């Protein structure tokens, strides 16, 4: 149950608190009981695609620093702040927006979050002002904060209780796909056709996703006034603070490793193999998604502990690998396998 790269373990806990309580309502029970024993793949993959676009929107400027800096007449370091402002927007918006919109119908809220990406990516594509682009990136982060707070709870409400773990795993598959395949391909596309066209293409994809969601994702009611929980009540629930702390540390460690994997590989003489290392990471992350779907409904605690142990082993393997390509690939594989379990 992955949280995104920079943003989002911070939202999945909010989702668990605000959305999963919602799944206990009579409306949801009726909906779950009416679902078949098969996963509604069309709807779940639409949710996964929204996660894919979210991650791609977040990280793409990091791969297009020189082009964007030259076009906006700022340094690479200043372009890097486009990623920072996105993360800040996501961080400050996630919990307040989740709390404020508990009573909203779910699909309308989902469409609003996805539509936000279409607007801000369009602004980013046409803007010639660095300040305007910063504002657009902040608002993109706000959309991301809202969307990540929806995905896991939304996926769980689309299926019967016995399939909720698998549904969440499918809905989250967009994240490893974006990290391992989407960002390198987006960077390549930006190099070939220009960064503005790349963001424009993302807008087109997002508009298509809006239609997909309308066609394939069911609507659900929000929480009634009497069933809503305050932030203080949620925070004081047994185990919530522990979950928040573990998720924060896990995602922070992953983000640091992902952000600096390229210079790390350059330092150990594998600067030309970044794409292959990330490919190994992505492929094993997909294996991790499959394992989650198969085991999470019965082995949740064991999977969490295993993911932490695997990540520690992966970090140690990479740290002590020296210049051994085999050890580096093994470490990247363990890292990919571990990162989606949490």
Automatic annotation (TrEMBL):
Record GO cellular component, one term: plasma membrane
Pfam families: MFS_1
Annotated protein name in UniProt: Major facilitator transporter
Upper classification of the organism: Bacteria, Pseudomonadati, Pseudomonadota, Alphaproteobacteria, Acetobacterales
Compartment(s) of residence: Cell membrane
Gene3D superfamilies: MFS general substrate transporter like domains
Keyword terms: Cell membrane, Membrane, Transmembrane, Transmembrane helix
Residues covered by the Major facilitator superfamily (MFS) profile domain: 43-342
Gene Ontology molecular function terms on file: transmembrane transporter activity
Keyword Transmembrane helix: yes
Iron-sulfur listed as a keyword: no
InterPro entries in the cross-refs: MFS (IPR011701), MFS_dom (IPR020846), MFS_Efflux_Transporters (IPR050189), MFS_trans_sf (IPR036259)
Membrane topology: Multi-pass membrane protein
Coiled coil regions in record: none
Superkingdom of origin organism: Bacteria
Bilayer-spanning residue ranges: 39-57, 77-97, 109-132, 138-155, 167-189, 195-217, 238-261, 276-296, 303-332
